[in-house]
Write a structure and sequence with these properties.
By secondary structure, the protein is an alpha/beta fold. It folds into four domains: 3-67; 93-157 and 318-392, 3-Layer(aba) Sandwich (Rossmann fold), CATH 3.40.50.620; 165-272, Glutamyl-tRNA Synthetase, Domain 3 (Glutamyl-tRNA Synthetase, domain 3); 400-450 and 489-563, Ribosomal Protein L25, Chain P, CATH 2.40.240.100. It is 32% helix and 23% strand. It has 16 helices and 26 strands. The strands form seven sheets. Strands 10-24-25-26-20-23-11 form a seven-stranded mixed beta sheet. A hairpin with a 2-residue loop joins strand 21 and strand 22 (513-514). Helix 1 (3-18) crosses helix 2 and helix 7 (167-179) packs antiparallel against helix 9 (210-221). The chain is elongated and about 100 Å long.
Length: 564
């Protein structure tokens, strides 16, 4: 391409993305693709300014139509290699550590991808370990959901395991700490323990002889105590400014049967206790976890130190927060139980099942979560960044269809019965789809309300009509020729057509409260070829957005809006 053609290509792209093109934005792209322009940038800028003026005079549909003739090689840089202490080529081992107490969400996606990406960069491996040491909350259903969600993301693990399989080792480690005088059995009430930790005051249980604690631990480990009658605590530092070190609990009594281990173990370890031991024994070199655990790193290292175990390197990255929702099972579960959402896969939900149903691609999620890198800086991005990544991926591969929301009937006198032949994809060689027409059309209500008597408009990619009258909620028009005219371009559907509804997900929260207006449904009509789509197909409804076919019903097709 010559200078003018190169400038037009990038001016069209700039106008498409931002509403209008700017010469300064276009110039850098032109200089990179057409180096000859650098020899006389003053002359080049004159041409660029002329082309930008031409492009800015075009309508949105004309820009989109002309832009589809060009191809753009998207430059994506691989993330820089993350450097952490102790990382050696081919020796890095990380882990993803989900608790099976709910469906996986976007926060899990970030944690999983960070562990997987760090291991990939160093030629190492990533393990999947289900953190199943809380019998009261965990279920096989959630194990299956996590497996399915992570497989959909495309992460491959070197090994899968369950933390609960290490219970004999945890019991041995607890006994070792008791014998060393590093742990004691506390029989104080929960309230008294909390008050003592808050005030930095040890209870009398701490000063018992180790032999007595050994007997009490055996009683606890054999089911001799009821729930909340005893806990095993580490002898930490009650004066520490880090409250996590003030004699934290290591084991508590749980009588609820475990979904894998049954009633075999009456005492269960806390997360702080088991995670450090399991990581050390499992060969983990780098334990990657979100910043909410940062104050507990000191305890992590202290436990392995007292047990004489190898210490992995712990790194805390920023937790993922998304505006308009909460990545917390404590928030999500009540919404399901109260019927405010339809389930874990409701398209408003930040769960992997929800975003998958919404038509968000795994690669979009990977790009989104890895864009934060190993940053510790807390942020709260909106959904837009994720949806923009999704749009980039869908735009070149999604088939195009005509869809009219809130349709208004238009009767065209003297209409010629034509068949519109339109591209299926942006690519000029993508093949064509045929849309037959009659004298009856349907256009969006928003467009219908903008029309005036006597106005000439163009039915997009078809022909022109003149508005003759408004009556009975519809419009009478007359055929006004095929020649291109400077007029509004109106989206349309003729007959036959397919009844379509589109569910539009919004933010789950308004402020800190559930948003009852977070789900809307738009009724409309689509061109007949949409009836041939398979459930799960993601298409672009022109001038509306990318939508995923969620279900077929006797009344037509139901889509979910993915992104615009």
């Amino acid at each position: 391409m010559d200078l003018r053609e190169t400038a037009r290509k990038h001016a069209l792209k700039n106008a498409f993305e931002y509403g209008s093109a700017q010469p300064g934005n276009v110039a850098g792209k032109v200089a990179a693709e057409f180096p000859e322009a650098r020899k006389d940038m003053k002359a080049a800028m004159k041409v660029i300014a002329e082309v930008v003026g031409e492009v800015n005079s075009l309508g949105k549909e004309e820009v989109e139509s002309e832009l589809s003739r060009y191809e753009f090689a998207e430059k994506r840089e691989e993330p820089k290699k993350w450097e952490l202490p102790g990382a050696e080529e081919g020796k890095v081992v990380t882990r993803f550590l989900p608790e099976p107490n709910g469906y996986p969400h976007m926060g899990h996606a970030k944690a999983a991808w960070i562990s997987a990406e760090f291991a990939r960069q160093w030629g190492g491996s990533v393990l999947l370990r289900f953190d199943d040491t809380n019998p009261e909350a965990e279920k096989p259903e959630f194990v299956d959901a996590i497996r399915e969600g992570i497989a959909w993301l495309g992460i491959v693990f070197s090994r899968e395991s369950f933390t609960s399989d290490l219970m004999p080792k945890f019991y041995d480690c607890a006994e070792q700490l008791v014998k060393q005088g590093d742990a004691y059995v506390c029989t104080c009430t929960r309230e008294r323990i909390s008050a003592g930790r808050r005030d930095g005051k040890a209870c009398a249980c701490r000063d018992k002889p180790s032999a007595e604690d050994a007997l009490l631990w055996k009683k606890m480990a054999s089911g001799g105590f009821g729930e909340e009658e005893a806990v095993l605590r580490l002898k930490g530092d009650m004066a520490s400014p880090n409250t996590a070190m003030r004699d934290p609990a290591l084991f508590r009594v749980v009588k609820t049967p475990h979904f894998r281990q049954g009633a075999k173990y009456p005492a269960w370890p806390t997360y702080d206790f088991e995670v450090s031991i399991a990581d050390s024994l499992g060969g983990i070199t780098h334990a990657m976890r979100s910043k909410e655990y940062e104050l507990r790193d000191e305890l992590y290292y202290e436990i392995v130190k007292r047990l004489g175990l190898r210490a992995p390197y712990v790194y805390d990255f920023s937790r993922l927060n998304l505006k308009g929702t909460v990545l917390s099972k404590r928030f999500i579960k009540p919404l399901i139980e109260e019927g405010k959402v339809s389930g874990w896969d409701d398209p408003r939900m930040p769960t992997l099942a929800g975003v998958r149903r919404r038509g968000i691609l795994p690669e979009a999620i990977r790009r989104f979560v890895l864009s934060f890198g190993l940053s510790k800086v807390e942020s709260e991005p909106g959904w837009d960044a994720l949806l923009n990544e999704n749009k980039k991926l869908l735009d070149p591969v999604s088939e195009h269809y005509y869809f009219v929301p809130d349709p208004v009937r238009v009767s065209v006198r003297n209409a010629t019965r034509e068949t519109a032949m339109l591209k299926k994809l942006h690519s000029p060689d993508s093949g064509l789809r045929a849309i037959p027409t009659t004298e009856t059309f349907f256009i969006p209500k928003a467009d219908a309300e903008s029309l005036a008597l006597g106005e000439k408009v163009r039915l997009k990619d078809l022909y022109n009509v003149e508005i003759r009258s408004f009556r009975n909620g519809g419009i009478d028009a007359e055929f006004a020729g095929n020649a291109q005219v400077d007029a509004k371009k109106i989206q349309w559907v003729s007959e036959p057509n397919v009844e379509v509804s589109v569910v539009e997900p919004g933010d789950l929260l308004s402020g800190k409260e559930f948003n009852p207006e977070s789900l809307k449904k738009v009724a409309g009509l689509a061109e007949p070829e949409t009836a041939l789509l398979e459930v799960g197909a993601i298409v672009q409804f022109e001038r509306y957005g990318f939508c995923r076919l969620d279900k077929k019903t006797g009344g037509g097709l139901e889509f979910i809006l993915s992104c615009r």
